[in-house]
Amino acid sequence: IRISVKKDVTATNTSSAAEESKPNKMNIISKIKRFLLACKYSLITYNLTRKRAALIRSIQERGTARVVFFVSNISMWKQQGLYDLMADDKRFEPMIVICPFATFTQQQKEADMQQLKQYFNSLNIPFIEGVKDPDCLSRLNPDIIFYPQPYFRLYQNNLDAVEHEDKLLCYSPYALFTVGEAWAYNSRLQVTAWKLFYQTEFHKAEAAKYCLNKGKNVEVTGEFDADAFARPVKETRWKPGSEDKKRIIWAPHYSITGEAVVNRGSFIWLAPLMLELAGRYSDRIHFAFKPHPRL
User: Fold this and answer.
1) 103: how many CB neighbours lie within 10 A of its CB?
2) pLDDT in tens, 70-112
3) Alpha-carbon distance 221 to 288, whole Å?
4) What's the CA gap between 98 and 85, in Å, rounded?
5) What pLDDT is stored for residue 7 in this prediction?
6) Cβ-based neighbour number of residue 85 at 10 Å
7) Quick check: 125 and 86 in contact, CB under 8 A?
8) Contact at 8 Å (CB) between 154 and 102?
9) Which of 49, 133, 182, 217 is the most buried if burial means most Cβ atoms within 10 Å?
10) DSSP letters of 110-137?
């Protein structure tokens, strides 16, 4: 019996030790990968620093900067105010390139392009369709490029950020991030961009925590489109007669299944509750449904 117990305990201890060693090994591997990635990005950034310094000198000598804004979805377009300021300033030559996200469905791409065309045509703002003119950046030769998202391979290869890192790449979030995780702050664009324009000091601190470059390219500028709240309202989607009611916008995320890369959706389990609340408080609250473009 004593032998049997001794063997069992030994086996149990060995098994426990093996299980405990797995996280340690994974942690070491993760640290090695992060170190190698940091070395890679440091080398890329070092080479880009010299090229971008030369580009900045060129801009200063010319007295003007050519700026391209990529726009892929009307609800994500937050730089209209900045575009207007640049259009009225002789030091800038702003240009719009509309191009659908590569990962969107064909139906969503067509809907987005139709909305964007209508929007910019209504403002008499010229634009270039990236899908029809995939080599437009070679012709436009911009100095500064604003991308709407920091993720890898947003567009076809010759329009994607990784193909134009020698330019002054910029990114400003279209949403107010509340999550503190590496995927939100540590993409290749966020590490190698010339400038990242974040809304608050909190977001700058998160970048310092999660980004391999410690957030050194972050500028805190506030919300890009905050000035829109001070402009007169030209049209509204709120129903007439709801002026005296509380107004609630429900904007669920698209990731409603476990198959999504970012599984943060709450639409399926919240939908019945929201319908119930809309009915119960219809005399006091006006609800508006604003789903993610991919939902």
Assistant:
1) 13
2) 999 998 999 999 999 999 999 999 999 999 999 888 999 999 9
3) 29
4) 19
5) 46
6) 13
7) no
8) yes
9) 217
10) HHHHHHHHHHHHHTT--EEETTT-TTHH
201: tokens are 């000091």
Contact 146, 79 (CB under 8 A): yes
Name the percent of the chain lying above pLDDT 90: 59
User: Rounded distance, CA 178 to CA 190, Å?
Assistant: 17
Distance CA 81, CA 223 (A): 11
| Res. 248: pLDDT tops 80 | yes
Q: What's the chain's Rg over C-alpha atoms?
A: 25
Q: Say what the pTM is.
A: 0.82
Which residue in the block uniquely carries the two structure tokens 């805190």? Answer: 220
Backbone phi, then psi, for 198, in 5-degree steps?
Answer: -105, 160
For the beta carbon of residue 202, count every other beta carbon within 10 angstroms: 14
In whole angstroms, what is the distance from residue 227 CA to residue 214 CA? Answer: 29
